[in-house]
Design a protein that fits this description.
The chain contains 14 helices and seven strands. It is of the alpha/beta class. It has two domains: about 180 residues, Vaccinia Virus protein VP39 (Rossmann fold); about 90 residues, Orthogonal Bundle (DNA polymerase, domain 1). A seven-stranded mixed sheet has the order 3-2-1-4-5-7-6, with helices on both faces. Helix 4 links the parallel strand 2 and strand 3. It is globular. Bound molecules: S-adenosylmethionine.
Length: about 350
C-alpha cells in the first residue's frame, strides 16, 4: 500500500516523527546507510557501544546463560546470542515497557526463538528476582550498558532531550514514579542545587536551581527548561561561552534524569546483587557514561576483588577506539569495566 510521506518544511525532515525513512530501516536501508556514513545515528536506532570490547571481556561460549540488564535495542544481546549458540540463552531485561516489545520483535525476526532468547520487564535492581523468575539462581554472563537508548533520547514524547518539544517526563518506565516536571515543582531550591551538583557535577548548580524555581510558569516541557536555563545563564554570567552554556544544559538534563529514575540507588542495588547472581567463573561487564556511574562500579569491583568475591577485575578502564568514537559521538564518554566471579561463597547479607 502506498503511504503519503509526512508533510514538513524544507527538503529534509527535522522533527523525529517526520523522519519516516530513518524510522523504517527495513524499507529504506540506503537512507539509513547514508546517515550512518555521515557519522550520525539514524532516528529511532540505537548503535551498541564497544561491542568487540564487551565480547572480549565476557568471552561468551556455546551453552552459556547470559543476562543483558539493559536490553535497549538489543545490540549487545544479539552479539552475545550469536556466541552462546548452540544450547545457550540470553535474558534481556529492561525497565522500559515501550521499547522492550519492539526489541523482542526485532530479535525474533532476526531468528532468535523463545528457547534461546527471552525478555523480562523490570529494573536491574531486582536482578536476583528476575533470574529466579526464569528458573535460574546464577548465570554465566551479565552485561549492563547504563543510561538511556537513542530510541528514548530521540523520541520527544519521552521528554529526555530538548532537541524536540516534549513533556518534561524522563521516566524510563512511564507507568511508575513521577515526571521531571513534578520533581522540579516539589523540590526546594537547595534540593535541586544538591541534585545538580551530586548527579552531574554542575559548576553552576546553585544558579540553575534558583532559575528553575524562579520560572514565572511551571516548567512542563523540555524546551521550556532549555530556554529558561539558557537565557538565565546568559543573563547572570554574560562571559560564559556558548559551549559552556550547552554543557550546563546537558548536565541539568542528566541530573534530572538520574533523579527521576533513581539511577544511583538502582546501580548500587545491582552492584550488591551481582556476587550472588554470578556462577563461579562468571563474567560481568558494565559500560558507564559519566563519573557518577563509573565511580561506584570501580569501587564495587575493587572491594569485591579485595574480599575474594571476584578473582580478576579490570586493572584499568577500557575505552572505545578512535574509529568508533569518530563514527559515534556517544562512544567517547563510554568507560567499560569488568570482573570475574571467583569460587568463593557469598551469602546474602
Ligand atoms: C544505553 S541503553 C542500552 C542499549 C543496548 N545495550 C543496545 O545494545 O541496544 C540503556 C537501556 O537500559 C535501560 N535501563 C536503564 N536503567 C535500567 C534499570 N535500572 N533497569 C533496567 N533497564 C534499565 C533503558 O531503558 C535503556 O533501554
Amino acid at each position: 500500500m502506498h503511504t503519503r510521506r509526512p508533510r514538513y518544511a524544507g527538503r529534509n525532515p527535522r522533527a523525529f516523527r517526520d523522519k519516516y525513512k530513518e524510522l523504517n530501516p527495513d524499507r529504506f536501508p540506503a537512507e539509513v546507510d547514508k546517515v550512518l556514513a555521515a557519522g550520525k545515528t539514524p532516528a529511532g536506532m540505537h548503535r551498541p557501544i564497544m561491542v568487540d570490547e564487551v565480547l572480549e571481556c565476557l568471552r561468551p561460549a556455546p551453552g552459556e546463560v547470559a543476562v543483558d540488564c539493559t536490553l535497549g535495542g538489543g545490540g549487545h544481546a544479539e552479539a552475545i546470542l550469536a556466541r552462546v549458540r548452540p544450547g545457550g540463552r540470553v535474558i534481556g531485561l529492561d525497565v522500559d515497557p515501550l521499547e522492550l516489545p519492539r526489541t523482542e520483535a526485532r530479535l525474533r525476526a532476526a531468528g532468535f526463538g523463545a528457547d534461546e532468547f527471552s525478555t523480562h520487564h523490570g529494573n536491574f535492581a531486582g536482578l536476583a528476582q528476575a533470574i529466579a523468575a526464569h528458573g535460574l539462581s546464577t548465570v554465566d554472563i551479565v552485561v549492563a550498558d547504563l543510561g538511556v537508548s537513542s530510541m528514548q533520547l530521540d523520541n520527544p514524547d519521552r521528554g529526555f532531550s530538548y532537541t524536540g518539544v516534549g513533556p518534561l517526563d524522563m521516566r524510563m518506565n512511564p507507568a511508575r514514579g513521577r515526571p521531571a516536571s513534578d520533581l522540579i515543582a516539589r523540590s526546594t531550591e537547595a534540593e535541586l542545587a544538591r541534585m545538580l551538583d551530586e548527579h552531574a557535577d554542575e559548576p553552576h548548580a546553585a544558579l540553575i536551581a534558583r532559575l528553575l524555581k524562579a520560572a514565572p510558569q511551571p516548567l512542563t516541557t523540555t524546551q521550556a527548561v532549555e530556554r529558561h536555563v539558557r537565557i538565565g545563564l546568559n543573563a547572570a554570567l554574560p562571559s560564559l561561552a556558548k559551549p559552556d552554556v550547552k554543557m550546563s544544559l546537558r548536565r541539568t538534563f542528566q541530573a534530572l534524569r538520574v533523579a527521576v529514575n533513581d539511577e544511583f540507588s538502582v546501580l548500587d542495588a545491582l552492584l550488591r546483587a551481582l556476587p550472588y547472581c554470578l556462577a563461579p567463573g562468571a563474567r560481568v561487564a558494565i559500560l558507564t557514561f559519566h563519573s557518577g556511574e563509573d565511580r561506584p562500579v570501580k569501587k564495587a569491583f575493587q572491594s569485591g576483588y579485595r574480599s575474594g568475591v571476584y578473582s580478576e577485575i579490570a586493572d584499568r578502564v577500557v575505552r572505545a577506539s578512535m574509529e568508533e568514537t569518530r563514527a559515534n559521538r556517544r562512544a567517547s564518554s563510554a568507560k567499560l569495566r569488568w570482573a570475574v566471579r571467583s569460587d568463593a561463597l557469598a551469602a546474602w547479607p
